Amino acid sequence: MARENYKAEQLWLNSFFQEIKTLDLSLEAEFEMRRAGVSLAELLDVFASGEVEWADRDYDGCSFVISGRNCDDEEIKIYGGFCSEIEMVSVMQIERVR
Amino acid sequence: MAGLDKHICRKIHVRECKDYDASHLIGAPFPVTLTGGVLEKHCEECNAKAGHILKNPRQLTRMVAVARACDDMKLNGSEVRFLRKSINLKAKELAEKLDIDPAHLSRIENGHLAISVVLEKLVRSAVCLSFLDEARIVGMDGSSILSMNIPSVVCSSRIFSLDLRLVEQNNVLHVVGGERSATVSSKSWKDDCEPKIAI
Ligand SMILES: [Zn+2]
Q1: pTM for the full predicted model
Q2: Which of A5, A98, B17, B106 has a Cα at 20 to 30 A from B146?
Q3: Does the distance separating the beta carbons of B90 and A72 come in below 8 Å?
Q4: Distance from the Cα of residue B198 to its chain's centroid
């Protein structure tokens, strides 16, 4: 699943991404979701089943790039961060890979 | 020159969002208005919007899907696609469940063919069976889908719209008043109905 370097991050993030309690969306991410036709359900499915492409852990969370596919097999990348203290997942930007 | 300095939004505050149009965010092909459950981020200095914060977003998407699935207004193609995606099924997988050819489902989703009453009841049931908890919260009874009286034609001037008033407690969204309101546009729809062949 995860790229070799990020197996620990994959395991750690998976537990939080299965049921996201609070989702923080930037205006840029919202705009791109609308432009690219990516729904909130698709975004959450990518979180639940995608793989960690890159991650950088800090003292209470992590920045990440997650890549996954929606039910129509279209690849979606999510650029964001996670704060474990308040259990909030932030989405800075998304990209539908054509 | 100070006047030309570009303002950078740094002091971001959040406030409760009222009557928030969430249809684009949820990807729903019908209007979805939310009060509660959504916070708006804005710059304290210039008041520019900076995005939104959603409480329990998974539950929110499920509630919207269930509310549409349980309303007896005929589903159009975009709504069928929305419901399929909400239960995370490939078109091929849903076609198999419905025992139809994937090309048939594609024609339905693209609006070239009206979905038959039998097939749309199966789609609605699949959504409710997937999200039983949300069906209860939205005040819907999935078992009544089979006895629904669904019109056989799509009516272009009638639009399903959803108005959810939510309150969040311990990361669980509840519907205020115990029910959701779904309305249709006020236009007369009899003259505008365009019958399509349903198979
Ligand atoms: Zn500002």
Answers
A1: 0.86
A2: B106
A3: yes
A4: 24
